[in-house]
Amino acid sequence: MKRQTPKRKLQYWILSLLGLFAAGFSAFILYTSWHEDRSVMSVVTNLADGSTGTGKDGPYPDRPEYQLPEETEARYDYEKMTLNGMDNYVLENEQTAEKKIIYLHGGGYVSQPNPRHFQWLAGVQDQTDSTVMLPVYPKAPQHQYEENFEKLVPLYTQTLENTEAENIVIMGDSAGGGLALALAQELDRQDIEQPGDIIMLSPWLDVSMTNPGIQDLTSVDPFLDLEWLLNAGASYAGDADLKNPMVSPIYGDMTGLGDMTLIVGTHELFLADARKFSEITDEKNIPINYYEYPEMPHVFQLQDTDEGRRATQQVVNIINDDADDTSTTD
Q1: What's in the keyword line of the UniProt record (predicted)?
Q2: 199: which residues sit within 8 A by CB, 6+ positions away?
Q3: I want to staple 171 with a disulfide (CB 3.0 to 4.6 A). Which of 8, 38, 199, 256 is the partner?
Q4: Exposed (0-12), middle (13-18) or buried (19+): which is 245, by Cβ within 10 Å?
């Protein structure tokens, strides 16, 4: 066996260190991407220009006026419309769209939408007779939950003016999934006609994070961080009780709402409350479409994987009212 020369040993250690650095850096990029519901490219871009995207307030980004990412603007025909001081990005169907999708993006109530949201929605719109609307709703810590309803309820009622309620879909991922349910509950409190569908993708249903089952999931969730979520949730709630249904809709009234669909992975912290939500609706004989995907992480539905594509197809089928073609994976 050949002995390693000092030079070869040095080369070996340099390559080993570079390999460890590359692995660690890649893990950081992936973690930050999922943790903040941002695209990998946006994280890399922020690092390149010296910005982490987390801002001076810890996990909360600085809040300049939101601009549609250049790559998204170049690729898709989203039109910016402003209602009641809130920007709303609209992707019109080339034909007369029967369905209207109000999509509430994720990001822990503190982060803005990322390119993947727009890309995924364009794919959904392409498979449905729909117009997609993505409102850039107010974010914590500068704004709290009340302002979201002050902005989103008028958006919904304006949509009702030219669209039948049964043809409106309120959908969201992560924090946006919880907000979708909370918005439907607020519409019910105001006696406003319910949307046809409420679709929740890996929803954050309880910002108090007090479900005992959450602790058992910390070892399998590769992306969500409990402390970060607690800080973000408290910032969003402001002075309100963390179990106020307007911030934690799992404590709200589930009766009388539109048709509900929840899709979640088994390797995410939000699984515990998703199962609790399913149990609550079952006890009250409220029908829902509930799907669990084994070993899938947070917001896998938006990712270009076999499971992500299957979940997306379920969403498309529900929007298209293909009730017989929404089977889950086992």
Answers
A1: Hydrolase, Membrane, Transmembrane, Transmembrane helix
A2: 169, 170, 171, 172, 180, 260, 261, 263, 315, 318, 319
A3: 199
A4: middle
Residues facing residue 171 across a β-bridge: 103, 199
| Residues contacting residue 187 through CB under 8 Å, at least 6 positions apart | 153, 156, 193, 194, 195
CA dist 155 and 207 (Å) reads 24
**5 exposed, middle or buried (CB, 10 Å; 0-12, 13-18, 19+)?**
exposed
Give the C-alpha separation, 265 to 243, whole Å: 24
The β-bridge relationship of strands 168-173 and 99-104 is parallel
The pLDDT tens digits for 215-224 are 999 999 999 9
Q: Please tell me the distance from the alpha carbon of residue 300 to that of residue 104, in angstroms, as a whole number.
A: 16
pLDDT 10s digits, 21-70 = 343 344 444 444 544 444 444 444 343 333 333 333 444 445 678 999 99
Token pair belonging to 299: 């917001």
Please work out, in degrees rounded to the nearest 5, the angle formed at the alpha carbon of residue 189 by the alpha carbons of 186 and 190. 90
d(CA 163, CA 246): 26
Closest CA to 134 of 160, 108, 106, 95: 106
Break the chain into its structural domains and give their ranges. 63-319
